Amino acid sequence: MADTAEPILEVSGLVKHYPLTRGIVLRKRIGEVRAVDGVDLTVHRGRTLGVVGESGCGKSTVARMLCHLERPTAGAIRFKGEDITALTGRALKAVRRNIQMVFQDPYTSLNPRMTVGDIIGEPYEIHPEAAPRGDRRRRVQELLEVVGLNPEHLNRYPHQFSGGQRQRIGIARGLALRPEVIVADEPVSALDVSVQAQVINLMERLQDEFDLSYVFIAHDLSIVRHISDRVAVMYLGRVVETGSDTEIYDHPTHPYTQALLSAVPVPDPEARDRRARIILTGDVPSPAAVPSGCRFRTRCWKAQERCTVEEPVLAVPAAFRGTSGPAAHDSACHFAETAPMAHTESR
Fold first, then answer.
1. Is the dihedral of CA 193, 199, 205, 210 positive or negative?
2. What is the sign, positive or negative, of the torsion defined by CA atoms of 312, 317, 318, 321?
3. pTM for the whole thing?
4. What domains appear along the chain, each with residue ranges and CATH number?
5. Most-buried pick from 33, 150, 219, 248 (CB within 10 A)?
6. Residue 225: how many CB atoms within 10 A of its CB?
7. Pairing status of strand 48-52 against strand 230-235
8. Longest dimension (CA), the chain
9. Cβ(216)–Cβ(49) below 8 Å
């Protein structure tokens, strides 16, 4: 299903490899870690792209590259049509004002020696043109109120707030420069379940209020479904399936996505008993030793000889080409289908 909103952030062929070396004085390169290995993503204006996958799949590395905290090994990141991967100096500083990040851990992402007012107001020190010095205190108080905190508490320190409140402070800091894109790297994974819902609802409200575009990274598929318009599923440095939230959650075609969704808790006992549980065997391969062909083949119950020698392309599977149904979305599998084959276990 195509999104009619204009793209604001486009990623093509994004690669990040880290060298593996041996030795202390005379360091010898012995290989490389392929953390991100050719990722294509599109974020539409005012929409949320959810990026999901197991730990180590490369989604946080993608987040850091989108915010220019890491430089890509190869590939392009286009913000409103302009490639920003090679920008430096003032040009990079201007782009960074429009792409902000909310970090995973609210306990370590806030400086404990700074007051909340200083933390939220720090972006104005880096970008003084964003707010006159005499107006910054008022703006910080407004941001605290926007995220549901008492504006009179700007002189308190992070340790005087709960985990959920600290994450609200992190969100307020991300909003200070009025960015167009916010990259949220697992923003609720360190919070209690009840607090997670409050923060997600806050982010949805802020998206409407400030016309924000989100890249929302998480490993919890139920949270991603709640907030995302489109979803990209990553495995071992690659996107293996992407589509609208309905396409991915109700009609998954890649076996890895099907396995992930089968593990999502279901509150209805009868539905849980009827559902087939897909049990994956083996461990996730090391990104320093990526399997040939399909990266998922070492754990996939559908794997055949073709999967060993030919890496599948992220595209609409042949079985669904020419159709307009929800199964006709991009999937990197030679044997994609909407219903899981064998290797399932009923509960």
1. negative
2. negative
3. 0.91
4. 7-250 (3.40.50.300), 253-347 (no CATH)
5. 248
6. 18
7. parallel
8. 68
9. yes
| Tokens linked to 264 | 């999502």
